[in-house]
Amino acid sequence: MQSGQQEENSVNTKIRRLKVTCVNAKYGQYIQKLYPELIVVPFRTALKYKKNIDAFITVKGRGAFIARFLKLPVWNIRDGVYKLPGKVATSFILEKTGSYTDARFPSDWEECVKATPGLLKIFKDFSLNEEQNIAEYSALQSMEDALLTVYAKRFLSLLPVSFPALSPYGIDEVKEILGEVVNQKIGIERYVLDASPYKLFTPGGRKRVVIIEQSRKSKQELKKVFAREESFKQMVLDAKEQHPGAAFFLLQPPSVLQGKKKGYLKKFALENGIEVISEQVSSFSILAQADEVYTVSAKIGFDAVLLGKTVHCYGLPFYAGWGLTKDKVACSRRNIKVKKEELFAAICLFFTRYLHPITGEPSHFQAFVRLILLQVPQLFENKRFIACINFDEKQKAFFSKMYKHADIRFMKEEQGIEAASNNRGMVYTAEEPTEELRKKCGNIPLVHVRPGAFDRLYNQQKMVSLCFEGGPYPPLEKILQIKTMTENDLLRARLLRQFLLELSSFREHYDYANVQKGQDVVVIIGNADLAPKKMSDSAVLQEGSGNLDKKGRPYHSFSLPLSDDGKLIEYIRKKRPEAYIVYCRQNNDTKVPVEILDLADELIPFARPSDFVPLELLGFTKETCSQSAKSGKSAEDEFECAGVELIDDIDVSRWNKKQVRAKRFLEKASAMTKAENTFCIFNCPITQVDGHLLEIHTYDSHLGIDALAIPLQVYTYGWPYYGGWGLTHDAAQYSLRNRKLNFEQILAGAFITQPRYFDSENNIYCESENAPFLFGH
Fold this sequence. Notes:
Helix 5 (108-123) crosses helix 7 and helix 5 crosses helix 15. This protein is an alpha/beta fold. It has a 7-stranded mixed β-sheet with strand order 2-1-3-4-5-12-13. Strands 15-14-16-17-18-30-31 form a 7-stranded mixed β-sheet, sandwiched between helices. It is globular.
């Protein structure tokens, strides 16, 4: 027993957690999350107890003089090779020795590359995870195996016991990940459009040679890669000499192309008959068309290595010296040859750690790749003119950030259509397009913009997503009818279902004493998703006859006004005379003024089967009540309450719009309370009632998807997006919805495929799984 404890103590002392400090408090938080084997001490505390600090971490090399003043070892944390656009820090490299961009001295990067082949062979058969116990992990570190090189042992000794930092990627997983990077064209500079497949077209099939330009650097920076300014011109001359008759192209970095910085080669290249690529396009798509690539030390040369191109290096960047490039400069320390999969695993999977910009938690490379893929098409697909009409202030602010690369103009309807026609643009409307508007637009693409499923479901103050229908964007109904959901889509939908259950409005549990034994409980969700001002008298549909919905689609329905909850209660009471009915009023209509919604919050709970509603909630004065009420009571009593049946007799000639709207709420409350055994609640749908059958009835409330997630029996009387696919009991029978879908497929279409999610704080597009975090959950 004692020997076992001694062994455990020896292991713990071997990998003592080091204490470090950093001036930048924000990066200090990143370090603590990404490197749990370290203890990050606040800088002011470190100044007081500097003898107990093991290292000082600088951010991108800044502040090293402070470490020299404190007489502490200097570590450096910098951005990874792949980054997201903007100022969001998402990939990090912590270097304890040297720098991967400085080839003059030994570095952790070189140790990592040497260790990678052995690690990949080990992890092919060994699964390392957070639950791995100390004994198994110690056995891995001490195993005497020819596959475990000295470098791999040294690399593993730096890792913590309780939380291994690197993921257990085997060589097969690395090949799969690298294949996705190449197929999806994920280059280091990826946030521009791809070049034409024939951009480097050469008549006669001549060899295509791409020379990579770089922005001017100081002589000190060039010394780090054993290069000089003369190296650039020498590179061009050698390329011309080695490839007579070839076609040469100069690829410039964005900073040089935009004129922000100067380069080395443009004038010299033109003098030597080299074509300069003047458009800002994806460097990855250019390198993919090249036969050979010449560079001094550009990072995008790493893209050419992953593409399997012949790369000539006139300096010593981090990817040179490992047998994958033809080098003009030799390095005795880089004395092993690796495969491109091993070099990729070293820099992207083992050497770099990733932090998710929205969740703020450690992430992995595959999730980081998905975020990169989201940015590219979204940022650059709409560079045309967009006339936005019928947008409110909240939508304007969100849309402006979301489409910052487009030429956006918020205008009135007539002006917007005219401007879109003159500029060959598009018209985006935030309201349901009418036939009149469609006729006015004619051939101009008309797109309906509306909040995404999460925004409509939870009615948050902060917008996180938008849906687009019309023009190049298919409607949700078409997506659900045609699209084949992949296994990845369904897996994401299953995870999303867990979020829905956690965020669900169906949280409450009721056990009504009034519910009789064996009596069914029917919950009616109010129809607040349709604004009453949009509904006309012709919106009453005839039972059993062919009708058209608001988008012109044929279906059959019953005879009920589309926005009258009182009629729906009476209809269900006739159909289910023995059931116990619970009415739930939902306020999801963002078009109703805020003060009216606040008033409704107080008013609706009083719409239970009672005779009186306090008029003080409506802002009525005693004078108004004494003049209009006819109950025969004193003015003081009249002010406190008035009979619901007297609401229609009140003189409204001197009322403001707020009071008139409140009267309409009262009229609905009056109609609803005429049905017996109806209990009215506000925004509290119920999950279950012990021992009773529970049903959810609604016109087309978005909370129906919440109920299906539980799952509960849902009856619809309108045209919700989740209705007509075989999961609900529908009064409407759609001729265009003849496909049977399960719940995950509907979620994948409505929450993953159609909406576009955007983090307005970090200014990046994100995934549906991130929406709850954006809401603050």
